[in-house]
Amino acid sequence: MLDLLELEFFRNALIGIVIIAVASALIGTYIFARRLVAIAGGITHACFGGLGLGYFLGWNPIVLAGAMAVGSSLSVEWMARRYRVREDSAIAVIWALGMAVGVMFVFLTPGYVPELNAFLFGNILTISRSDLWGFAIYLAALGGFYVWQYKSIIATAFDRDFAFVAGVRVRMITTVMTVFVAVGIVLTIKLVGVMLLMSMLSLPQMIAETRYHTCGKLMTASAVISVACCLGGLMLTTVIDVPCSAMIVIVMVAAWVVARLVSFIVNRHN
Question: Is the backbone of residue 105 left (phi > 0), alpha (psi -120 to 50) or beta?
């Protein structure tokens, strides 16, 4: 372990995991409270369209993935608000369109795209120093917005109609948080990849929910659980030669199963 800490890429992976785990807990709690966990999948798969287009045009795929993520997430909110389309239906459209566009442009791109596997399945060990700065700036902005608008965010997440009547700027809160979710998803793609990202935004909250039911405690517990599971997954991959992203998800699922069993036993005895 000490030998691994001497390697810069492993230190970057450790720092990156902690930052992204905390950020994922913050945005994950918001979408979990809104019962919109599926939006993470929709935006994630919409990102694939941006990645495919980026490779086809020879542009930075992350930039186009970010643009696609923000655009698709705002489109879901716009369709739900303007045309009364159910959010889950709008998410399904974005999900399907993003994957279709991504597959089409990857197919049209000449040659083989070796970096695509990193975005599909994740590779935490490729995180660079510049990535860490991007993660840190994002977490600082997200944390600052939470501190500034905490009560409004919670009210909007649980009951937008009540929040609107109470004078909360619901549209502003929803738009800003939607953008944060989209940007967070793009940044996190390198951690667990397109295919496994939803677990980072839902499993820590599902584990924490077995014990805590207020938003503040749920968010704090989710952050602790997310960091612990991510670090545990990374440590296990130093012993077992398997992809880090897959191990992180396995650790989270195992923790959820244990938490559910403990909750069942405690409730039964009470």
Answer: alpha
| Residue 269 located in a structural domain | no
Q: Is the dihedral of CA 230, 236, 241, 246 positive or negative?
A: negative
Number of neighbouring beta carbons within 10 Å of residue 108: 11
Cβ–Cβ contacts within 10 Å for residue 154, how many?
Answer: 21
What is the domain count for the chain? Answer: 1
Over the chain (270 residues), what is each successive 10-residue block's mean pLDDT?
73 86 87 76 79 83 82 79 74 81 83 66 79 89 91 84 84 87 80 72 89 85 91 86 83 92 82
DSSP 20-83: HHHHHHHHHHHHHHTT-HHHHHHHHHHHHHHHHHHHHHTS-HHHHHHHHHHHHHHHHHHHHHHS
**Residues of the domain holding 119:** 2-197
Q: What is the 3-state secondary structure (H, E, C) of 155-203?
A: HHHHCHHHHHHCCCCHHHHHHHHHHHHHHHHHHHHHHHHHHHHHHHCCH
Closest CA to 17 of 124, 121, 129: 124
Contact between 229 and 249 (Cβ < 8 Å): no
User: CA angle at residue 85 from 76 to 154, to 5 degrees?
Assistant: 60
Residue 169 C-beta-side C-alpha neighbours within 13 Å: 7
Tens of pLDDT, residue by residue over 113-126, are: 666 666 767 777 77
- The torsion defined by the Cα of 182, 82, 38 and 150, in degrees rounded to 10, comes to 60
Examine residue 82 and state whether it is found in any structural domain, yes or no. yes
